[in-house]
Automatic annotation (TrEMBL):
PROSITE patterns: ADH_SHORT
InterPro entries to which the protein is assigned, alphabetical: 11-beta-HSD (IPR051253), NAD(P)-bd_dom_sf (IPR036291), Sc_DH/Rdtase_CS (IPR020904), SDR_fam (IPR002347)
Metal-binding among keywords: no
Subcellular location(s) per record: Secreted
Protein's name in the database: Hydroxysteroid 11-beta-dehydrogenase 1-like protein
GO molecular function: cortisol dehydrogenase (NADP+) activity
Entry keywords, A to Z: NADP, Oxidoreductase, Secreted, Signal
Domain of life of the organism encoding this protein: Eukaryota
Assigned protein family: Belongs to the short-chain dehydrogenases/reductases (SDR) family.
Recorded GO CC terms: extracellular region; nucleoplasm
Length: 256
């Protein structure tokens, strides 16, 4: 038993040594031009606040006009962001990504970071979900990510920037009662890992950081796992900082 514990400890240390780059320089984000999606609540809101404290220029998106995103923008300004812009975007619409990226380019003059964090859909079993609802979820959770990436890639190539993709453990581990949602997250993992290889072969200096988050301390997640697991939710601010550190150090992956 002692040997097993030692082995797990060593493997854990090697895991974090591989996926966690400790050479994080907060000053590197001062003046960085960041497009952050899904910034109205949860981890996305905390990402916005961290970037603001670090002095980044921000374009934030949320799914629809609402007082909450306006409050987030105001808070970011108070925290020190030199520029903060907000654009409402329903990522279920195939036209939304083009509008969002063009807005960001117009306001910031280019991009150094594209941080994809928006999310749609609930955890349900396949039999209770219609094909139309599944298509909607795939558009929001996968296809819009692809569209945003394609549209932002020329600017990120010019700036030698970074793509930061916030995903889920459900995109790595098959789980019951989450089939459509899990499929959208598995699709993200396959697409961006393949894109990373493609960019490397083409000698394009754009980093891709895949961030795999577990259970976060938001009501949606806590409600869905109540009675299923005793695992405690991770604090949103710490998870958000892990995402930012991973992107800033151009790590290939972050697990939190």
């Amino acid at each position: 038993r002692a040997m097993k514990v030692l082995l797990l400890t060593v493997l854990g240390a090697l895991f974090f040594a591989y996926y966690w780059d400790d050479n994080f320089d907060p000053a590197s984000l001062q003046g960085a031009r960041v497009l952050l999606t899904g910034a109205s609540a949860g981890v996305g809101e905390e990402l916005a606040y961290h970037y603001a404290r670090l002095g980044s220029h921000l374009v934030l998106t949320a799914s629809a006009p609402h007082p909450l995103p306006r409050q987030v923008v105001g808070n970011c300004r108070k925290l020190g962001a030199p520029k903060v812009f907000y654009v409402a975007a329903d990522m279920a619409s195939p036209e939304a990504p083009k509008h969002v990226v063009q807005f960001a380019l117009d306001q910031l003059g280019g991009l150094d970071y594209l941080v994809l964090n928006h999310i749609g859909g609930a955890l349900t079993d396949m039999r209770s979900r219609s094909a139309q609802a599944t298509n909607w979820l795939l558009q929001v959770n996968f296809l819009s990510y692809v569209q945003l990436t394609s549209l932002a890639l020329p600017s990120l190539t010019d700036s030698k920037g970074s793509l930061v993709v916030v995903s889920s453990l459900l995109g790595r581990v098959p789980t019951s009662f989450s089939t459509p949602y899990s499929a959208s997250k598995f699709a993200l993992d396959g697409f961006f890992r393949s894109l990373r290889r493609e960019l490397e072969v083409q000698d394009v200096n754009v980093a891709i950081t895949m961030c795999v988050l577990g259970l976060q301390d938001r009501a949606f997640a806590a409600e869905r796992v109540r009675g299923v697991t005793r695992a405690k939710e991770a604090p949103k601010p710490k998870a958000a900082l892990a995402v930012i550190r991973g992107g800033a150090t151009r790590s290939s992956g972050v697990f939190y």
